[in-house]
Design brief:
With about 120 residues, the protein is mostly beta strands. The chain has one helix at about 100-115, and strands at about 15, 20, 30-35, 40-45, 55-60, 70-80, 90-95.
Length: about 120
C-alpha cells in the first residue's frame, strides 16, 4: 500500500466497525473506530497514534456479515494535524493489511463492491 493520503493506490469506501489492534498476547489490545477501507487497508480515527512502520495483529468483523478478519497490519501513514477548516479531515492512521487470507480478500472485495 506504500502510499500517502493524497496518493492512494485504491479507492476508499465507508466502513464503520470497531477495530482491535494487539500484539497477540493477553492484555495487549487497543480498540479503534474505523472510518473507511480499501482492499489494501483502512483508516482508523484516533487521537492515539502509533508510529509509521509499527506492526500488530488487527481484527474486526465486516458489518452486515459474519466474516471476521484477523490479519497482521502495519501503520502506513499518520495524520497528526488535521485541517481545522475541513470537518472531514480527522486525526488517525492509515493501516496496511499485510497477509489477508484468500477468503478474507474475497469477503472484503464483496463488501467494498456492495458499499
Amino acid at each position: 500500500m506504500n502510499q500517502t493520503r493524497n496518493g492512494r493506490q485504491a479507492s476508499r469506501h465507508p466502513l464503520e466497525a470497531e477495530i482491535e489492534l494487539g500484539d497477540g498476547f493477553m492484555g495487549g489490545e487497543l480498540s479503534f473506530d474505523s472510518h473507511n477501507a480499501s482492499e489494501g487497508g483502512l483508516f482508523l480515527i484516533s487521537e492515539l497514534l502509533l508510529e509509521v512502520g509499527e506492526t500488530f495483529w488487527i481484527s474486526f468483523t465486516l458489518p452486515g456479515t459474519q466474516m471476521a478478519i484477523r490479519t497482521r497490519g502495519k501503520v502506513a501513514w499518520v495524520n497528526r494535524n488535521p485541517d481545522e477548516n475541513d470537518p472531514t479531515d480527522r486525526p488517525g492512521m492509515g493501516i496496511q493489511f499485510l497477509d489477508l487470507s484468500e477468503a478474507e480478500k474475497e469477503a472484503l472485495a464483496v463488501f467494498l463492491q456492495e458499499g
